[in-house]
Amino acid sequence: MNLKIAVLSGDGIGPEVTQESIKVLKTIAEIYGHNFEFQEALVGAIAIDETENPLPEKTLNLCRESDAVLFGAIGDPKYDNNPDAKVRPEQGLLKLRKELGLFANIRPINAYDSLLDKSPLKREIIQGTDMVIYRELTGGIYFGQKKISEDGTVASDLCEYSKLEIERITHLAFKAAQTRKKKVTLIDKANVLETSRLWRRIVTSISREYSDVTLDFLFVDNAAMQMILNPSQFDVILTENMFGDIISDEGSVIGGSIGLLASASVGNGTALFEPIHGSYPQATGKNIANPIASILSASMLLEHFGLNNEAKQIRIAVDKTLKRNIVSVDINKETPSSTSQIGDVIVQML
Amino acid sequence: MNLKIAVLSGDGIGPEVTQESIKVLKTIAEIYGHNFEFQEALVGAIAIDETENPLPEKTLNLCRESDAVLFGAIGDPKYDNNPDAKVRPEQGLLKLRKELGLFANIRPINAYDSLLDKSPLKREIIQGTDMVIYRELTGGIYFGQKKISEDGTVASDLCEYSKLEIERITHLAFKAAQTRKKKVTLIDKANVLETSRLWRRIVTSISREYSDVTLDFLFVDNAAMQMILNPSQFDVILTENMFGDIISDEGSVIGGSIGLLASASVGNGTALFEPIHGSYPQATGKNIANPIASILSASMLLEHFGLNNEAKQIRIAVDKTLKRNIVSVDINKETPSSTSQIGDVIVQML
Ligand SMILES: CC(C)[C@H](C(=O)O)[C@@H](O)C(=O)O
Ligand SMILES: CC(C)[C@H](C(=O)O)[C@@H](O)C(=O)O
């Protein structure tokens, strides 16, 4: 298969971890006779530094012309602590999601047998956890109108959802559940929010088309608790943008490190694959970041194009590497391996 | 001291647990020579059933005339699963918060030595946790304009904050930090939300008046992770309404049960004291609910009026009861005590 892949490695540890994914993808291409073409482009703080634009036109065009985007990370503390910055790195990622129509962010969360004791949660709590979060990604309070009064004393963000926005991701979530444990849990705050009540109405109505799938509801506050008390109760979680952001980062503690969590963002055109962790500025350039989230995102990329065996081989190689305790410092403080060492071992395992 | 206390025990297990708090408060009044007068009023689903109004005028007036409100719980599944209900129990609580001007909800979270092994989190993770969450309670997306289009296909909720709303709770949080570990962590999503950037600006500026207190920032997604990875890093958490709702319920897993978590809501007039758990409909009438969250809320009530020793005696009695493993089924499935037994033991301990 020929695939044109745009590489947006971004800020902080983004470039380091993305480099390892590329190594893995190149190895897969060689072994299985595919042709993957990689083209790099700027995004985030580094794009602001060079072009004053967190998502240069050139980058967006490259993404549009590509089959997939391999994304690194975004964000820089010099913007985080400056609420007055007019341009911020995150705008690059948000605009990219919107422009590419990436309305569904898919985040699988599993407990790895070899890492059961690495989690802050007890082994018996996380054992058997196997869920996937469908987070709506181009709507809600992230993209609604933002206002600040002229004198700077009143600010607002609008959370808005339309039927169409809810329907399209709901179908994806139910279809996923059909291939899994046949359960969808909608997380919302329908006892307070009008948008949540719209979600509940539409999701309930769509659920009738999937009679083999059970639909459950959880208020987001309760969900934040249930995620920790009993994560294995979940199969497919469906939720809006902001709740999905919070709940999926919370869920990352189950696997033992956020450095393991991959995601796929899909929609109308080019799909995007990115680790859910951030740019982790303190680790930049130190060759200590965990590349596995990025490598598993590359595996999701292959799966997206039907290269299921290739995707699986990556997952198996990652599993083996974890079992051999070849892991980065986020998982093993005593004898950590470096970012590039882990990449090398995964490549060897393939 | 003379105190007039409005009792709004509400729905589900609310009445059962509140009854135990009243028992405890009456005992305190006897021992220390106070005069507490209790008057009951309707709120929530039960108020809708009887008056079609989740917060009858009579209830609101009683609260206004009282020194404090002892609140039980609110909510009924018959409304939760009906997104079309026009009147809902939660409106009673939300209106009460707004009408009484209860802008700050204060939620302490501790790990109890005797319960360290009851948490889904590992003992070494939670040991030493001692934080208090200051959640803004009368602003944000809870109270902004809600809209639904006539054809029911587009809904919105407005999240709005003003300088004044942020300032008043910020001062409370910093003052609390001064009496504690001298650290405030602001939880927001300033990389996306305009309201969060307003929070960051105002809180940063106020922090200069409290030079003995350190101010930290955490994005809410990261905070949801840090809460589980390393809860003892926190002292005072300051956050807006919705994030506070999610983060504090999440934090309840630290103590081993949400049935232990008390809260005080304070503002311009009458203060309100309530467990953070919900109405737990499945347990209603079974005498199995945990009354400790309610009893500790009563202790916060006494503290609010400067009855620090009395408040402390309740906390000591609760500690002793927990140590003797006299706990409800949420904490001990094998040999649980009933709601009223636990209340009785705490009364004896006083
Ligand atoms: C960087 C930030 C804007 C982003 C988000 O909130 O969506 C990130 O946290 C994520 O989850 O991908
Ligand atoms: C019942 C509900 C409206 C309420 C809230 O979300 O504030 C509850 O969850 C709480 O935390 O007190």
What is the strand content of chain A? 15-25%
Structural class of chain A: alpha/beta
CATH homologous superfamily placement of the largest domain in chain A: Isopropylmalate Dehydrogenase
- Percent of residues of chain A in helical segments? 40-55%
Query: Can you list the ligands bound to this structure?
Result: 3-isopropylmalic acid
According to CATH, the fold-level topology of the largest domain in chain A is Isopropylmalate Dehydrogenase
Weakly predicted, low-confidence segments of chain A: none
Oligomeric composition of the shown chains: homodimer
Q: Helix segment count of chain A?
A: 13
The domain count of chain A comes to: 2
Task: Please write the CATH class name of the largest domain in chain A.
Answer: Alpha Beta
Rg measurement of chain A, Å = 20 Å
Site (Important for catalysis) (chains A, B): 142, 189
Function (chains A, B): Catalyzes the oxidation of 3-carboxy-2-hydroxy-4-methylpentanoate (3-isopropylmalate) to 3-carboxy-4-methyl-2-oxopentanoate. The product decarboxylates to 4-methyl-2 oxopentanoate.
Keywords (chains A, B): Amino-acid biosynthesis, Branched-chain amino acid biosynthesis, Cytoplasm, Leucine biosynthesis, Magnesium, Manganese, Metal-binding, NAD, Oxidoreductase
GO molecular function (chains A, B): 3-isopropylmalate dehydrogenase activity
